[in-house]
Design brief:
The complex is a heterodimer. By secondary structure, chain A is an alpha/beta fold. Chain A contains 17 helices and 29 strands. The longest helix of chain A has 22 residues. Classes of the chains: A alpha/beta, B mainly alpha. The interface between A and B is medium-sized, with 34 and 24 residues.
C-alpha cells in the first residue's frame, strides 16, 4: 500500500472541510480526486503532504505512519496550481532545490537535473528565469522540481488550472507518461471531469468534505451509487422508476393494491432513444414529450425534450419549470442517428431508454402522509425534512387521501398520538422505511443507530445515506439485555460487527460503536439525551409486538425526537 | 511603442492642456529654483568652489551626514524588516494600531520629533539619564543623529518591505518545505531573496531621506562644528551669515548627491522588477 488514509478529518472553526476520509492507494496508481470547489479535495491533498495538520485520523505513506511528521520529512513531491516556482532562481536552481537542501554533490546534482529536464522536455532551458518561460513550461519545471528528490508519492493540486486548453491537453499527456515511466504513486486534484477521465486509474469523487465514491472512470460513470456522482460525472437524467414484480416502469403510481418499489433511475442522455410514433422495440419505454431545444454540437446533437407533468417523475425537483408545464429531459444523438431520423423543434417524440442504472440509494423520495392538507403542508415545512430533501435533491410529494397501500418512497408522518399505529400500518403495507418527525424538528447533530439483527444492513444503509448529507456525529448502539443468554450474545455481537463492516465497505460509513449491557429503552434514552437534536435510526426485525412495543414511547411521547424506522426485508429471516 | 513617434496618441482628450500644465508646474516649482542655485554655484570660480566644498568643516559635515544616514538606514533595514514581518505574518490585538503608528514619523512635523527625541535622550531625560549612568551619551553626539535618522527612516523600510512580504505567497514556502527545506533554509533561500529588492529600495529611500533630514536632527545633535554638525545645518548657518555663495556651493553638492541617490533607487527598483519578472508575461 503506497498511501493509506484512515478516517482523516480536518476542521476549520469546527466545520469539517475534510470529513472522515479513508482510502488506500496502490503503488504506482494514478488517483484523481474530483469534486466541485470547496469540496475539501485540496485540503485533503495538503494533509497528505503534511502542509495541513489534521484533527483526526491517520496518514500512512508506504506503511509508515506520518501523521505527526512535518512536510519536509515526508518525502513527497508537490505541484501547485500557480506553479510556485522560485522566481529569483534559474530553472536549474529551481530543479536542484531539493538536492541542494539535501547537500548533494555538485556533479550529482548536475546529472540529476539534466535527467529531469530531459524528462519534462525542457533541455537547454537551465539558465532561464521562470519569468522567461510560458505557463506550460513553468509547470513542467515545477513537475521536474517536485520529482528531483525521487519522491515515492507525487501530489498535484489543480496543476492545469491556470493554462489554456491546448497546453493543458499536452501537459496531461506529459504527466501521465512521466507517471507511468517512473511508476510513482500519484494523486491529482481537479474539478474537471474530462481531466479525471483522461488520466485516472481510479477517480475519487469528493463532495462537502466526504469522499463519496471511489472507482475506475468507466465504473463510476456506468454504475454510480449516489445522485451526486451520477450528475457530477457527466450529464444524467434522474427519474423515479417503479418496479412492479420484475418490470420496471416510469408511470406514476395510482391507486394500487401493492406498493411498487420506487427506485432512482439514472439514464444517460446518450442512452435515450427518440422515435416518432411507436416506441422502439426491446427498449424500456419512458414516456412521450415535445422537442424543445435542438443544439448542433459537432459529432453529436443535443436535445431537450419537454415531458408533461403527468408523465414520468423526475427524481430531482430542480428540473421542473415553475409554471408547471412539465420538465426537461436531456438527450444526445450521434450523427448517423440524426441522419436516419431528423427531428425538429416542436415535434412530438416517444422516449425510450437503452440502458437504465438504478441507484442503490435507500431513499428515493419522501411522501408526506397526513389527514388534511394543512397538516401535510406543515409537516413538509419541518426544517429537518425541507433541508434534507434540498440537500439530497429529493422530491417531496404529499398524500392526504386514504389508499390501500403505503406510498412509494419513504412515508413521512407527524409524531404524536396515533403515530405508532400509522407507522406500523405503512410498514405492513409495502413501505420499508418510515420517517416520523415531531413538529419543528431540526437537522440532527447526532444520529444514533440501533440496527436490530435482520434489519441491520438496511438501517445502516439508510443511516449512511443520511450522513452523506448531514455533518452529524454518528453512534452505532448495541445493547445486550441482562436476560440475553450467553450463547446468543456471541451471535448478536457477530451480527453487529458484520453490519458495521458492511456499512464501512459498502457505504464508506465509519461509526463510533457503543456496546452496552442493560435495559434497551434506558440505553436508547441515554444516547439520545446527549444532544437535544438527536435522531434515532431504528431497525425493526419484524412487526411482532415484541419488536414494536417501544414504538409507542418513541413516537408518541412524552419526549419526541425524529425517528427513522427501517424494516427488515420480507423473508430475510 | 510606435517607432519614431514621441507622443503616443491616447483616446482620452486633453493631452495638450494637461501636458502643458505639467511642464509649467514642474518648471516653476522645481527646475527654476534649482537651476538658479546651480547657476549661482557654477558662477563661483572653480578653485574657490572646490575650496568651499573641501573646507574642513564641510567635509566633517559630509562624513556625519552620510555616515549617520547609512548607519541609520542599515539599522532600519534590519529592524524595519522585523516590524514588517510581524505586521504581515501575525495577527494580534492592536496590529492595526501599530500599523498606523509606523506612519507617525511621516506625519509629524520633523521639529516635533526632534524636540521629543531631545527631551527623552538629553542627559536629564528619562532615557538619557539611564544611558548616561551606563556611560553612553546619546544627545549632542553623533549617536543622537543616528537615533533621529532611525526614527525618520523606519517607515520607508517598513512600507517598502510590507507589500513584498505579502507577495511571498504561502505556496512558495509550502513548496520549499515539501522539497525538504527547514525553516531557516526557507527564510534564507526563499523569503529573503524574494524581498531583497524591496528591502534595498527601502534602504535607499531611508538613506536618501537621512541625508537631507534637518528638523528632527538639529535639536538632538547639539550642532558642534566639526563634530555634530550635519550638512543641511551648515547650509542654514552659511545663509544666516549672508554667505550665499558658500550656501549655494553646498546646496549644489547636495543636489548632485540627491540625483545620484534617485538614480540608485531607480536602478535598484528596475533590477528587482527584472529579477522577479514583474511586467513580464507569466
Amino acid at each position: 500500500m503506497s498511501i493509506a488514509l484512515d478516517q482523516v478529518t480536518k476542521r476549520y472553526q469546527s466545520l469539517p472541510v475534510v470529513n472522515d476520509v479513508s482510502i488506500e492507494i496502490e503503488q504506482g496508481e494514478f488517483l484523481v480526486l474530483l469534486g466541485p470547489s470547496g469540496s475539501g479535495k485540496s485540503t485533503l491533498l495538503r494533509a497528505i503532504a503534511g502542509l495541513v495538520e489534521i484533527d483526526h485520523g491517520r496518514v500512512s505513506l508506504h506503511g509508515r505512519d506520518v501523521t505527526g511528521v512535518v512536510a519536509r520529512d515526508r518525502g513527497v513531491g508537490f505541484v501547485f496550481q500557480h506553479y510556485a516556482l522560485f522566481r529569483h532562481m534559474s530553472v536549474a536552481d529551481n530543479v536542484e532545490f531539493a538536492l541542494r537542501v539535501r547537500r548533494m554533490k555538485r556533479a550529482d546534482r548536475l546529472s540529476r537535473r539534466q535527467e529531469l529536464l530531459k524528462l519534462v522536455a525542457l533541455e537547454g532551458m537551465d539558465e532561464r528565469l521562470p519569468a522567461q518561460l510560458s505557463g506550460g513550461q513553468q509547470q513542467r519545471v515545477a513537475v521536474a522540481r517536485a520529482l528531483a528528490h525521487r519522491p515515492e508519492v507525487l501530489l498535484l493540486d489543480e496543476p492545469f488550472g491556470a493554462l489554456d486548453a491546448k497546453i493543458r491537453e499536452e501537459l496531461r499527456r506529459t504527466i501521465r507518461r512521466i507517471q507511468q515511466e517512473l511508476g510513482v504513486t500519484t494523486i491529482l486534484v481537479t474539478h474537471d471531469q474530462d481531466e479525471a477521465f483522461a488520466m485516472a486509474d481510479r477517480i475519487g469523487v469528493m463532495h462537502q468534505g466526504r469522499l463519496l465514491e471511489v472507482g475506475s472512470p468507466d465504473e463510476l460513470y456506468a454504475r454510480p451509487r449516489t445522485r451526486f456522482v451520477a450528475t457530477f460525472l457527466g450529464a444524467a437524467n434522474l427519474l423515479l422508476g417503479y418496479r412492479r414484480g420484475h418490470r420496471l416502469g416510469f408511470d406514476r403510481p395510482g391507486a394500487e393494491n401493492v406498493t411498487p418499489r420506487e427506485i432512482v433511475a439514472v439514464i444517460r442522455p446518450e442512452e435515450i432513444e427518440l422515435t416518432t410514433g411507436k416506441a422502439a422495440g426491446g427498449l424500456t419505454p419512458v414516456g412521450s414529450g415535445v422537442v424543445q431545444e435542438l443544439q448542433f454540437a459537432g459529432a453529436t446533437e443535443r436535445l431537450r425534450v419537454r415531458m408533461p407533468m403527468e408523465g414520468p417523475v423526475p427524481a430531482t425537483p430542480d428540473r421542473e419549470g415553475a409554471d408547471g408545464s412539465g420538465w426537461l429531459l436531456d438527450a444526445t444523438r450521434t450523427f448517423p442517428e440524426q441522419r436516419a431520423n431528423p427531428l425538429a423543434i416542436g415535434q412530438k417524440v416517444t422516449v425510450s431508454a437503452r440502458r437504465i442504472h438504478s441507484l442503490p440509494t435507500p431513499i428515493s423520495s419522501f411522501t408526506v402522509v397526513a389527514r388534511e392538507q394543512a397538516a401535510a403542508e406543515q409537516l413538509r415545512g419541518t426544517p429537518l425534512l425541507a433541508t434534507l430533501a434540498a440537500r439530497m435533491q429529493t422530491r417531496i410529494t404529499m398524500r392526504t387521501n386514504r389508499t390501500a397501500s403505503a406510498p412509494p418512497g419513504m412515508p413521512v408522518l407527524a409524531a404524536g398520538p396515533g403515530a405508532s399505529a400509522t407507522a406500523q400500518w405503512n410498514l405492513a403495507h409495502g413501505a420499508s422505511q418510515v420517517l416520523v418527525l415531531p413538529a419543528g424538528a431540526v437537522l440532527p447533530a447526532r444520529i444514533v443507530v440501533l440496527p436490530g439483527a435482520e434489519a441491520g444492513v438496511g438501517a445502516l444503509g439508510v443511516a449512511a445515506s443520511l450522513l452523506r448529507h448531514i455533518p452529524a456525529e454518528s453512534v452505532l448502539l448495541a445493547v445486550h439485555e441482562a436476560a440475553t443468554p450467553e450463547r446468543e450474545r456471541a451471535s448478536r455481537l457477530r451480527l453487529l460487527l458484520d453490519a458495521r463492516s458492511r456499512a464501512l465497505s459498502e457505504h464508506g460509513l465509519d461509526l463510533r460503536t457503543e456496546l452496552r449491557f442493560g435495559d434497551v429503552d434506558a440505553e436508547i434514552e441515554r444516547e439520545l439525551a446527549a444532544d437535544p437534536t438527536s435522531m434515532l435510526v431504528l431497525g425493526l426485525d419484524s412487526l411482532e409486538a415484541s419488536e414494536t412495543a417501544r414504538l409507542a414511547t418513541l413516537l408518541e411521547g412524552p419526549k419526541l425526537r425524529p425517528v427513522l424506522i427501517v424494516r427488515a426485508p420480507d423473508g430475510a429471516a | 511603442m510606435a517607432g519614431g513617434r514621441i507622443v503616443v496618441p491616447s483616446p482620452l482628450p486633453g493631452f495638450g492642456l494637461t501636458f502643458g500644465f505639467t511642464t509649467f508646474f514642474l518648471s516653476a516649482i522645481i527646475l527654476l529654483p534649482l537651476g538658479a542655485m546651480v547657476i549661482r554655484a557654477l558662477g563661483i570660480p572653480p578653485s574657490e568652489l572646490l575650496a568651499m566644498l573641501l573646507d574642513e568643516r564641510a567635509v566633517a559635515s559630509y562624513r556625519l551626514s552620510f555616515g549617520a544616514a547609512a548607519l541609520a538606514a542599515a539599522i532600519n533595514a534590519v529592524f524595519g524588516f522585523i516590524v514588517a514581518w510581524s505586521l504581515v505574518r501575525y495577527d494580534f490585538p492592536g496590529r492595526r494600531l501599530l500599523d498606523t503608528m509606523i506612519d507617525l514619523p511621516f506625519a509629524l512635523p520633523t521639529a516635533v520629533s526632534g524636540i521629543a527625541l531631545a527631551t527623552v535622550f538629553s542627559p536629564t531625560g528619562w532615557l538619557g539619564l539611564k544611558l548616561a549612568q551606563a556611560g553612553i551619551q546619546v544627545a549632542y553626539t553623533w549617536l543622537g543623529v543616528v537615533v533621529a535618522l532611525v526614527l525618520i527612516g523606519l517607515p520607508f523600510v517598513v512600507r517598502s518591505v510590507q507589500p513584498a512580504l505579502i507577495e511571498v505567497r504561502k505556496d512558495l514556502e509550502d513548496a520549499a518545505e515539501s522539497l525538504g527545506a527547514g525553516g531557516f533554509n526557507v527564510f534564507r533561500r526563499i523569503i529573503l531573496p524574494t524581498i531583497l529588492p524591496a528591502l534595498a529600495t527601502g534602504f535607499t529611500l531611508a538613506f536618501a531621506r537621512g541625508i537631507g533630514e534637518y528638523g528632527s536632527v538639529v535639536f538632538i545633535s547639539g550642532n558642534l562644528p566639526l563634530k555634530t554638525e550635519i550638512t543641511p545645518l551648515l547650509i542654514v548657518i552659511k545663509l544666516e551669515q549672508y554667505d550665499y555663495a558658500g550656501a549655494a556651493a553646498l546646496g549644489f553638492f547636495m543636489l548632485v548627491m540627491s540625483f545620484v541617490m534617485l538614480l540608485a533607487i531607480n536602478l535598484v527598483q528596475q533590477w528587482g522588477q527584472r529579477r522577479m519578472g514583474i511586467g513580464v508575461a507569466r
